[in-house]
Amino acid sequence: MTVLPFGMTRRTFILGGVVLYIICSNLLLIVELSEIVSRKKPTHQSSTYKFEGTVLHLSGNAVDGNTNQELGNNSCTYQAVGRKEVWWRVDLEREVTIDKVEIYYRDEGYQWTGWKNRFAGYEVYLSNTTDRLTGERCFIDESESVDQIISHVNHPECNGTAQYVTIYNHRESPKRHDWYFKDALLELCEVQVYGCEAGKYGNRNCDETCSSNCPGSVCHPSSGNCLYCGDNTYTRPSETSCRPCPESCAGPCDTYGNCNACPDGFYGFQCENTCSSTCSSNVCEKANGDCKACQDGFWGIRCIYDCSDTCESGVCEKTLGHCTADKQSGVEAIIVGASAGAGVGIAVVLFVFIVIFKRRSTTLREMTTAPSVKYEKPIPRGNSKNNSDETEEHIYLEIENVDIQDTSNDHENVYYNEGSMGYPVRQLKTMIAQKMADDAKQFVSEFKTFPLGATHPHTNSEKNKSKNRYKSIHPYDHSRVILDTLPGENGSDYINADYIDNVEAKKFYVATQGPLPNTTDDFWRMVWFLNSGKIVMLENLVENRKVKCAKYWPDEGDPMLTKTFDISQNGEHVYASHVVRNITVVDRKTKIKREIQQFHFTIWTDHDTPNTLDLVLFHRRVKLHKTVLPGQMVIHCSAGAGRTGIFIALDALLEFGKKHNRIDIRHFIHTMGKDRMNMVQTADQYVALHEMLAEAFDLQDSLIPKSMFAAKYHTLSTTRHAAQNQTQLSDEFKLMWDQKPDYKVEKDFQASLLPENRTKNRAMRILAVDRFRACLKSYASNSNDYINAVKTQSYTGQQGYIVTQFPLTDTRADFWTLVMDYKSDTVVILGDPRQPAQWIPADEEDVSINDFNVKQNGTSTEVNGVDVIDVLVNRKNEKTAHSARLFQMKEWTMEVPPSKQSILHLLEQVESRRRSNDNKPVIVTCGDGTTQCGLFCLMANTRDQLKMDEEVDVFQAARQLLVRRPEFLSSFDQYQFCYAILKDYLEATEVYIN
User: What per-residue confidence (pLDDT) applies to 348?
Assistant: First the structure.
């Protein structure tokens, strides 16, 4: 069941059965579509506590609408003591489609926390009889330490159709954990079951009727979507009825209406396409239409190319079209029949044959080709040991011994030859999911069809080896960029760069290697010759201690002179994933000046793939920049191959797909390959390209100019859909949550779940993703590098923040190790730790934790609700102390800050610290490492974006944070508050300016 992740706050008011959420301080009301169906319903429990003969704390207290969690208010249940098994049950009186279950357990505040070891281990069941075991257990608490227990919990996983909800607990001997209370107890102060009567949904009072097309007329209580469909029918996630599978399917279909199987002769997700008539037996792959085999005389993925007339019986190899056997031509007959004494004549004939052959694809200025040029044989992908930019093991063969098949004229753009091919863009995500099955076996298989190494002549490259960064990466003779020749300089027309077609136009891009020191002037001559206004750089100058590119641009204020140009930089903007530089180039002879923009993506290292969203947003920035110069965009990485090819494919296929609603990724890679080698170097890059395109096609138009922010925020907050009465802003929030990463426990949280680390997590539902966790570097000998902390980007740095939970008793030393290891001099504390003296020093009081000593450096101050504490931290065996400033906002204990003025002040103070040294991360900590931390980072990043770029994208900024910690921003209240605080910030700024 799909559950809407709307704000689950304690500030919930019940008005006539309608749940209303008060958002921020603006009293904007958001409606919960399903209702509380457990209020005042019959309840039972296994026993009831009696005091001096008086029965107290009845089972009905848990459904009286009072969420006060103190037992003394007589609004909670309490059962007889000394039991080893207890249960509480509510009868909803009819079958109900349940959305979620919310529990308020006893909590007496900070004074006493004994309730935790009683609540621990509880279970929740949904059933249609009073016997819970006939139903489904939807939740079991498996907390490993008492610190992980919280008193107010939501269980969206408890959804389905049921009449009874049972909460159960038990104690056995020996106890599951030593810290468990010896007896089983349930002290429930309120249990709220959200849902609708079966057959009903939404509209606040569950007065909408589920579609009769839903089996049993059962649907989701909030959205009205069918929960499931019958045979040969399906429903999409956004639809409220089931529809029949397409008639073209050979059997059932999936939840998107895509056929699970096709009749012979057809392919496509809905079997809507006909296999090529040249496929053997007219049979092709269901997913993409690729022929499983070709009829004799044809080759290619879809068998659309004719085998060469020189092939014996017209038969050739399917993948590249090489003849399996050659015809005996007249020339060959002469050669075969000649005697050994005619060797010289044979060589002449062979030479003439090669020259004639090569003239099919060679320009007049390139017809001085030598006959003994070395040539690389294409290496099958499956045998490649190293597909990186630096591949140095190559096969060099004399041209006389290689059958060179120059297909540059025959191998035109695939789309030109095959028409509107490919598959609908809307099917891309489903296709990715299917191909990722079985360890992405289908992706790997497809990747192996791309040739590795040269497949066309590259004689000019061989003559200019000193200008090539890698001896294995060459520009092809037919597609290379030919520069104007400099007087008296042989080879000055050469640069390692190729023109690349897009889907519908020739020579649309230029792909090139990262400049060498001796080719920097050549690079700028090419940019000038092309009249290009955009350069895209995808590598860093140095990666893994290897130089990947010469620094071909100057620093601001320090002009660069090349042989031909005067070059200066007019400023740069540094972002978390990239840098944008404004470069002025002046031709020294003509004095003509051009302004060129360089877009430098800084987080994509060789052998790796970048975060999909980061690269797509970088691509958006490149596309949004307008230049008056009409030339091709120049794209380069170190070799001008893998990373360059991925970026070009993203740009070309996105443009084509938006226009025609169809794409064919694999065929376009072959299109690039005809003009430059190795444009996709690894299977991981191939998979990543698919994911980038899926992300790019779904990219929301959520970028808001500063001047339009107030009006746009008003529209998002007030425009509602008639059907569901939801605002556009709530739709945006739901979409944000629907698109967050789906990390796998066993794969992505391995460090968090090691036995020695489980007790270091305050809540087992909030763990550190392995890829982004902040590892300790100087941990004690009896510890390890784990702390529940993740690196999170600021607007200007990939690791601008490190987010972590309040320290547990046993992790206090780890917290201060984190501060020192990452040299952080700014710590933001959001909320009020229950025992702050254990890790935060008070005035004139030191804190001693293992081998750490923490003391205040001066007196703490308080401004606008923010405490400022300067501390000195040192290990007891070290003389040098580390200084840091702590900013604590004690009153922020709920989901949103109590004061906008206080949070704006805090954001300003932290930005001021970061501005002075952006290389040091700010450590942000709150109770669970999520609730307050996520909203703080979102407000900080979006505020910085407004200041730097005079535009903001709250939606994408939030999504980037959820990549690092998916539990961030779990309520709509927080998302709404971010918009509200930005509005207040802009208004305050305007007042100050005016």
Answer: 39
Angle at 339 between CA 338 and CA 345, to 5 degrees: 60
What is the end-to-end Cα distance of the chain in Å, rounded? 52
Beta-carbon contacts of 288 under 8 Å, excluding residues fewer than 6 positions away, are 267, 423, 666
Instruction: Say how far apart CA 955 and CA 482 lie, in whole Å.
Output: 44
Going by C-alpha positions, the residue among 594, 612, 600 that lies closest to residue 693 is: 612
Q: Helix (H, G, I), strand (E, B), or coil: what is residue 365?
A: helix
Q: 174 preceded by cis ω (within 30°)?
A: yes
Token duo for residue 884: 């840091």
Structure tokens at 516: 């060498």
Structural tokens at position 877: 């065996």
Task: Give CA separation, 496 vs 312, 489, 516, 524, 764, in Å.
Answer: 38, 17, 10, 13, 53
The count of other CB atoms within 10 Å of the CB of residue 343 is: 10
With a CB cutoff of 8 Å and minimum separation 6, the contacts of 895 are 7, 9, 931, 932, 935, 971, 973, 974
Check if the beta carbon of residue 470 is closer than 8 Å to that of residue 391.
yes
What pTM value is reported for the model? 0.65
Q: What pLDDT score does 142 carry? A: 86
Q: Is the CB of residue 65 less than 8 Å from the CB of residue 138?
A: no
Q: What is the dihedral of CA 552, 553, 554, 555, to 10 degrees?
A: -120
Q: How far is CA 48 from CA 53, 92, 121, in A?
A: 11, 21, 20
In contact, 268 and 251? CB cutoff 8 Å: no
- 């006060």: which residue's tokens? 68
The rounded distance, in Å, linking the Cα atoms of 772 and 760 is 17
Q: Are 96 and 162 in contact (CB under 8 A)?
A: yes
pLDDT tens profile 833-876: 866 668 998 877 788 888 899 999 988 899 999 999 999 999 98
pLDDT number for residue 108:
77
Structural domains in the chain plus CATH codes: 43-198 (2.60.120.260), 414-698 (3.90.190.10), 745-993 (3.90.190.10)
Give the Cβ contact number of residue 353 at 10 Å: 14
* Residue 123 Cα to chain centre, angstroms: 34
d(CA 532, CA 632): 5
Each residue of 889-922: b (16+ CB within 10 Å) or e? beebeebbbebbebbbbbbebbbebbeeeeebbb
CB distance 7 to 895 below 8 Å: yes
CA atoms lying within 13 Å on the CB side of residue 257: 17
Distances in Å between the alpha carbon of 18 and those of 7, 91, 534, 591, 731? 15, 21, 55, 72, 19
Q: Strand 882-889 relative to strand 662-663: parallel, antiparallel, unpaired? A: unpaired
Given a contact cutoff of 8 angstroms between Cβ atoms, the answer to whether 424 and 256 are in contact is: no
Q: Which two tokens stand for residue 330?
A: 């007249």
How many whole angstroms separate alpha carbon 382 and alpha carbon 366? 34
DSSP letter string, 130-197: S-GGGSEEEEE---SSGGG--SEEEETT--EEEEEEEEEEE--SS-SSTTS-SS----EEEEEEEEEE
Other CB atoms within 10 Å distance of the CB of residue 488? 6
Contact 86, 168 (CB under 8 A): yes
3-state secondary structure 552-618: CCCCECCCEECCCEEEEEEEEEECCCEEEEEEEEEECCCCCEEEEEEEEECCCCCCCCCCHHHHHHH
Q: What are phi and psi of 707, to 5 degrees?
A: -65, -20
Contact by Cβ (8 Å): 50, 80: yes
The list of the chain residues with pLDDT below 50 reads 1-31, 329-420, 992-994
d(CA 262, CA 287): 9
Handedness of CA 884, 885, 887, 890 (dihedral sign): positive
Which pLDDT score is estimated for 708? 95
Integer-rounded Cα radius of gyration of the chain: 34
